[in-house]
Amino acid sequence: MKSLAIEREFGSGGREIGMKVAKAAGIPYYDGELLVKAAESYGLSISLLKEYDEKRTGSFLFDIAAFADAYQRLPGKKSVPELLYTIQKTIENIERQGPAVFIGRCSTEILKKNPHVTSVYIYSSDEQKKLRRIVDTGDAISENEARKLMEKMDKQRRNSFRYWSQKNWSDRANYDMELNTGTLSIEKCVDILLAAIGN
Questions:
Q1: From what superkingdom does this record's organism come (predicted)?
Q2: 57 falls within a domain
Q3: CB within 8 A of 191, min separation 6: which ones?
Q4: Roughly how many angstroms between the first and final C-alpha of the chain, as a whole number?
Q5: Any bridge partners for residue 118, and if so which?
Q6: What is the distance between the alpha carbons of residues 30 and 41, in angstroms, rounded to a whole number?
Q7: 132 in a structural domain
Q8: In sequence order, which residues have a C-beta less than 8 Å from that of residue 52 and are 6 or more positions away?
């Protein structure tokens, strides 16, 4: 069985799909956890990184790099490339332990050359479906607030991906496949991905 690496538009259902694939396949699921592991192994304060993250883009990976730019000036601290290298190695080490599902965090690029990983970009051509999903899963959020949040989160993910890979986040050439939840149900996407990873 292969691992699965997912990049997804906010509101597309990509996180839900990834979690359902992991559960059905009986394999681990990773999103923010792997960055916490990387940060801890690097000796950074998780609470400080999260606080910095909330004040900046909202993209944990992007802000680790920005935070490290100042952090590296302290005696004995590492450079931004070394910090990003630590994150990359954490993801690679987790995958070597066996099949897993990775959500975001540029895992599709980090694991791109690994023949045991299938990469997918999950998006939706139906904006109303995305907005309804965000409203339904949000905490008393209006459709107008959902639209603003969707635009903000997609911008952050695009910037983070570009920072890491120097590539366009939504370029289909980056992935083995794309799934459109505007026309495909969550369940159908799960079935497709389970077949793709050989479950």
A1: Bacteria
A2: yes
A3: none
A4: 6
A5: 4
A6: 16
A7: yes
A8: 63, 66, 67
